[in-house]
UniProtKB/TrEMBL annotation:
It comes from Biomphalaria pfeifferi. It holds the Pfam family RRM_5. The keyword Repeat applies. GO terms for molecular function: RNA binding. InterPro entries: HnRNP-L/PTB (IPR006536), HNRNPL_RRM (IPR055204), Nucleotide-bd_a/b_plait_sf (IPR012677), PTBP1-like_RRM2 (IPR021790), RBD_domain_sf (IPR035979), RRM_dom (IPR000504). The keyword RNA-binding applies. Residues 32-106, 142-218, 349-423, 466-540 form the RRM domain. This is Polypyrimidine tract-binding protein 2-like isoform X7. Keywords: Phosphoprotein, Repeat, RNA-binding.
Length: 542
């Protein structure tokens, strides 16, 4: 019995070959749509566009990664005819792998909203191709500046982002004027243009670490060492270099940048960032104006509705889905809504706080203080050791952020210690068992600062400071009211309303410790029938 011209007794490989032979021999009438198959798994829209750009204007492209196939639509059928004819005589290759090119049975490509991510990538690749075709300058090197850099950016993260638009040949990272920058050499001009089109102006993490991308005037990057600062992906044999050198060396012929001299390295493996958390305020690349007003939601710019790169449109989607779409593990993005580093090591979401004042500590006080750095789910003050408490944050990344900012802070006259706990969750008391109110569940609390994806709170996470940011101030509350209330928790040194928005103000306490006490006492302070004060730490001065 023979079905569709194939014997049921043939092996799977024979059947596959037979199908290909049948497809190759089939007479398919000309169409504006070209069908490309047997693609390598890493092939993307830019690879397909490069195959067709020499034959005419392209209007759409669709890559089916699971099937290793793609479709390329031209504006004119004659362009598709020219492409098929050329590659029948000259077998095509994509990323050094032979591929098959033939007419498609489809007369046009139609994509719907469910393919929004693919649609965006397609338009980026087409736009890049058209810009390259209409320009004499075809640079393959991009200069990347990371603005508003709150969190570390590694060479590996950049590679994961840019490889989605084509082959990355070389990367050099360096710091200039306290700003993290990189030079990235793509394999071709279309990949570079597509990456620039898609990533320029986007955020690596929610609300911060913004990519500013321009073309470099350099013609080539000369990488001498493969380490944390520079990488030549075409030369895995390069040495890692001298451990003691850490400088940029500009040399070589005109238009060539030499790679930075190596620092401490980890060979070709991704570097481990051992200190998790934001950079100090003075290292922030852009001193953006502090503007916060709850419950306004900020919608960060995205690649397309519902899609994006890490930390992108947080109102329309979760950053986890966005990063997953770019091939970055979802497990690294549990706290993407507050912009924590991908490289943060996964661990427990529970932290242990010790050296607390037994007379002052309460679950509510810890909920308010630690809630500045994440959403606190549960708090347990230990019954037999009340100077210790366990705090369960929403995820491990928020726990790391709280550890970074609050470890060794002075609270109630004592320097507290904050460390990751071996526990994975905080247990509530069993039914009927009383613990004198020392354990509380806050999962459904309306006071979480980060429950709204993309909240402006995500952009304003700072270490404890003398200056506090106040918001949600009703019109009837005066400066005297606020200074009087806050003076109950320490000496008030200065105060000012925001000039253009009297709902917000800055107040400066005498010490950081007094500011911490004031925040614990005054955050969510009721100032009217349905009006509660919002208090957070500020990096501003008065």
């Amino acid at each position: 019995m023979v079905a569709n011209g194939l014997s049921p007794h043939q092996s799977p490989s024979e059947i596959t070959d037979a199908k290909k032979a049948k497809l190759d021999g089939a007479v398919i009438p000309p169409s504006r749509v070209v069908h490309i198959r047997s693609l390598p798994g890493e092939a993307g829209e830019t690879d397909i566009v490069q195959l067709g750009m020499s034959f005419g204007k392209m209007t759409n492209v669709l890559v089916l990664k699971q099937k290793n196939q793609a479709f390329l639509e031209f504006q004119d059928e004659s362009s598709a005819v020219a492409m098929v004819a050329y590659f029948q005589a000259n077998p095509a290759q994509v990323r050094l792998k032979p591929v098959f090119v033939q007419f498609s049975n489809h007369k046009e490509l139609k994509t719907d909203a469910s393919h929004a991510f693919q649609n965006h990538n397609a338009q980026a690749a087409l736009q890049a191709a058209h810009s390259v075709m209409g320009s004499d300058e075809q640079s393959t090197i991009l200069r990347v500046i990371v603005d508003n850099a709150f969190y570390p950016v590694s060479l590996e993260i950049l590679h994961q982002l840019f490889i989605k638009f084509g082959k990355v040949l070389k990367i050099i990272t360096f710091t200039k004027n306290n700003t993290f920058q990189a030079l990235i050499q793509m394999s071709d001009a279309i990949s570079a243009a597509a990456a620039k089109t898609s990533l320029d102006g986007q955020n690596i993490y929610n609300g911060c670490n913004t990519l500013k991308i321009d073309y470099s005037k350099l013609s080539n990057l000369n990488v001498k060492y493969n380490n944390d600062k520079s990488r030549d992906f075409t030369r895995p044999d390069l040495p890692t270099g001298d451990l003691n050198l850490d400088a940029m060396s500009l040399g070589g012929s005109s238009g060539v940048l030499m790679s930075p001299m190596p620092t401490y390295h980890h060979g070709l493996t991704p570097p481990q960032i051992t200190t998790i958390g934001a950079l100090p305020a003075q290292q922030t690349a852009v001193d953006f104006q502090e503007v916060r007003e709850e419950p306004t939601i900020i919608w960060t710019q995205g690649l397309a509705p519902g899609y994006g790169i890490p930390g992108l449109p947080m109102g329309a989607m979760s950053a986890m889905n966005a990063m997953g779409a770019f091939g970055i593990p979802h497990t690294a993005l549990g706290a993407a809504r507050i912009g924590l580093p991908l490289t943060a090591a996964m661990g427990s979401a529970v932290i242990l706080v010790s050296n607390l004042d037994e007379e002052m500590v309460t679950p509510d006080a810890l909920f308010t203080l630690f809630g500045v750095y994440g959403d606190v789910h549960r708090v347990k003050v230990l019954f037999n050791k009340k100077d210790n408490a366990l705090i369960q944050m929403a995820d491990p990344h928020q726990a790391q952020l709280a550890i970074t900012y609050l470890d060794k802070a002075r609270v109630w006259g004592k320097q507290i210690r904050v460390a990751q706990s071996k526990h994975q969750l905080v247990q509530m008391p069993k039914e009927g068992q009383s613990d004198a109110g020392l354990t509380k569940d806050y999962v459904n609390s309306p006071l979480h600062r980060f429950k709204r994806p993309g909240s402006k709170n995500c952009q304003n996470i700072f270490p404890p400071s003398q200056v506090l940011h106040l918001s949600n101030i009703p019109a009837h509350v005066t400066e005297d009211n606020l200074t009087t209330w806050f003076s109950e928790h320490g000496a008030v040194k200065a105060f000012k309303f925001f000039p253009k928005d009297r709902k917000m103000a800055l107040i400066q306490m005498n010490t950081v410790e007094e500011a911490i006490h004031a925040l614990i006492a005054m955050h969510n302070y009721q100032m009217g029938e349905s009006c509660h004060l919002r208090v957070s730490f500020s990096k501003s001065t008065i």
